[in-house]
Amino acid sequence: MGGVGSTFFIKHIKKYRSTNLSNDKDSLKHILFPPFSANRNIKYIYIYGNPIDSVISLFRRNIQDLHSKKFLSLNNKLKSINLSDNLDKYAADGVDRFIFSEQFNNWLTGSKFYPTLFIKYEKLWENLEVLYDFLEIPREEIKSFPEKKKRNSEFLYLDKKTQIGLKKIYAEFEQYINEFDDCFILNGRKRRLLPGMFFTKSFYYTARRNAAIKINDFSPSLSNYLEKLYFSERK
Which of 21, 215, 34 is CA-nearest to residue 109? Predict the structure, then answer.
């Protein structure tokens, strides 16, 4: 989701398995759909958590604009957050510009082709055995997993109006994810990539993302022009 410890998580797991990049230079962190891959050995891990804590974390680190822009890359109805926007303004606007609920459901429905572990950040340390078994890492390595740190949530110190605004935006989604187990696996058995995979949103999203990356590598100025042409006036 973003704001749920994915950076430290990836840095640790890459000691044992090939992973996407923790600095997101491969554009695979926090994406809207599980990406299509022809690698039959691939596994996905989707970390989610309290959406309000995630939003506070993103704003505290001043990366709210980058995350919002990435989440809304295929959305032509919402404008992404500006770097100049603060948390008070975001809460007052009353709109989830990270579309957490849409992302979560995309991963639920789009993970049927790959073994995917869903795990709640707040319960990550209580489910390390499931995590290590899923990744086929010996359980004795659990002792090297980073210790749990107290989350720097500043919710109680926010302005009351901001607290109320954030609760209105995310109350329904928070209740929704609380109905799921803290840790669960979808499609635990590997499946062949059926022809139907090529007609899914995951395939379309992956193709579009890869095309954008190649255009940017070829000509950053062209990439910037196309982005302004097609996305700057979204409403």
Answer: 34
Sign of the C-alpha dihedral computed for residues 139, 111, 21 and 57 taken in this order = negative
Q: Which residues pair with 183 in a beta bridge?
A: 119
For the CA atoms of the chain, what is the radius of gyration?
18
At 194-209, the pLDDT tens digits run 444 444 455 455 555 5
Instruction: Give the strand order in the sheet containing 183-186.
Output: 44-48, 116-120, 183-186
Length of the chain: 235
Residue with tokens 């230079």: 25
Q: How confident is the model at residue 234 (pLDDT cuts 50, 70, 90)?
A: very low
Q: Name the one residue in this structure whose structure tokens are 């635990």.
A: 188
What DSSP character marks residue 144? G
- The amino acid sitting at 132 is Y
How far are the Cα atoms of 184, 216, 222 from residue 226, in angstroms, in the given order? 40, 10, 6
Please compute the mean of the pLDDT values over residues 133-137 and round it to a whole number.
96
